[in-house]
Amino acid sequence: MMSGVEIPLIDFSGCAINKVREEENLKRAGQQIINAFETVGFFNVVNHGISETEVADIFKISEEFFALPTEVKVKHRKAKDSNHGYVELEREGLNPEERPSDLKESFNFTPKSQYKPWPDEELPKFKTTFEKFWDLSSQLTLRILEAMAYGLDLEPQYLVNTHQLLGKDGNASTLRTMYYPGVPSAASIKANQVRCGEHSDFGSITLVYQREMGGLEVLTHDGRYTPVPYIPGAIVVNIGDLMQRWAADRLIAAKHRVLFPQDQELLSKARQSIAFFAQPDDQVMITCLDGSNKYEPIGALDYLNMRFGATYMDLAKGQ
Ligand SMILES: O=C(O)CCC(=O)C(=O)O
Ligand SMILES: [Fe+2]
């Protein structure tokens, strides 16, 4: 790679979700994780306990969903006041000030029983595949949060206890599958349009599952966008702005983006990714963990709503 900044790679085998937790291993991994978040804001994690087959299954069913005709997909559209359902192509822009909407479509998943819609008729296994993947991703998130608490010298369960309602009412975490369609030629792309505009995430931590194509880039401290390499079996982990604020800026919520590939053949291929956006429970007060008063305390849900308001503003205009 040309850039001097490397994206750290962390071996999580001592803390994998299919293993009994061991303090020594969590401490060691916690140091590495905090070091990565203090310097780059991103790392790749391997040997985490989520199998390649489990990841392949959700990518496959996602691909089948996105291949459905638009009129079928929009039957499962996300309602305005919900965080569950289909979001159409170009409905959302993560850098709305500088760019047209992102050339992507997505399906947000929240496993609360009252949430609908599901493409049950078209894809009977969709719901169960997402539920299973939600479980795996939330288990890994909790392990990472536990390791982070060690790395930050907090009480070991401190961060885990703030995410007790993961998957239940009172917690806004979301699993999202994304589809960036292939483009026949660069001429058909709008000026300045990208697959995913420059942004930092909102919440506590994010897991990103990429595929062979890679494509994710992170703004590193040398002022350049550095590719986050695709490593077979690895998951990309980063923090959001809420975590940066909580850590009183000790940890970095780095900006990231996905551009169109330069290569004509790659450009014509679709890109898929899956992200698990973890949020603390709605009522948790985010008060600087270092005891400073660098930022005012704010409720986790209030913070999220403030950020969503900014991203979806354009959406409201378009309706
Ligand atoms: O598609 C990706 O690899 C990343 C997407 C992303 O950063 C996001 O949706 O927040
Ligand atoms: Fe992101």
Automatic annotation (TrEMBL):
<dbReference type="InterPro" id="IPR050231">
    <property type="entry name" value="Iron_ascorbate_oxido_reductase"/>
</dbReference>
<comment type="similarity">
    <text>Belongs to the iron/ascorbate-dependent oxidoreductase family.</text>
</comment>
<dbReference type="GO" id="GO:0046872">
    <property type="term" value="F:metal ion binding"/>
</dbReference>
<dbReference type="Pfam" id="PF03171">
    <property type="entry name" value="2OG-FeII_Oxy"/>
</dbReference>
<dbReference type="InterPro" id="IPR027443">
    <property type="entry name" value="IPNS-like_sf"/>
</dbReference>
<keyword id="KW-0560">Oxidoreductase</keyword>
<dbReference type="GO" id="GO:0016491">
    <property type="term" value="F:oxidoreductase activity"/>
</dbReference>
<dbReference type="InterPro" id="IPR026992">
    <property type="entry name" value="DIOX_N"/>
</dbReference>
<feature type="domain" description="Fe2OG dioxygenase">
    <location>
        <begin position="171"/>
        <end position="280"/>
    </location>
</feature>
<dbReference type="InterPro" id="IPR044861">
    <property type="entry name" value="IPNS-like_FE2OG_OXY"/>
</dbReference>
<keyword id="KW-0479">Metal-binding</keyword>
<protein>
    <submittedName>
        <fullName>UPF0676 protein C1494.01-like</fullName>
    </submittedName>
</protein>
<dbReference type="InterPro" id="IPR005123">
    <property type="entry name" value="Oxoglu/Fe-dep_dioxygenase_dom"/>
</dbReference>
<keyword id="KW-0408">Iron</keyword>
<dbReference type="Pfam" id="PF14226">
    <property type="entry name" value="DIOX_N"/>
</dbReference>
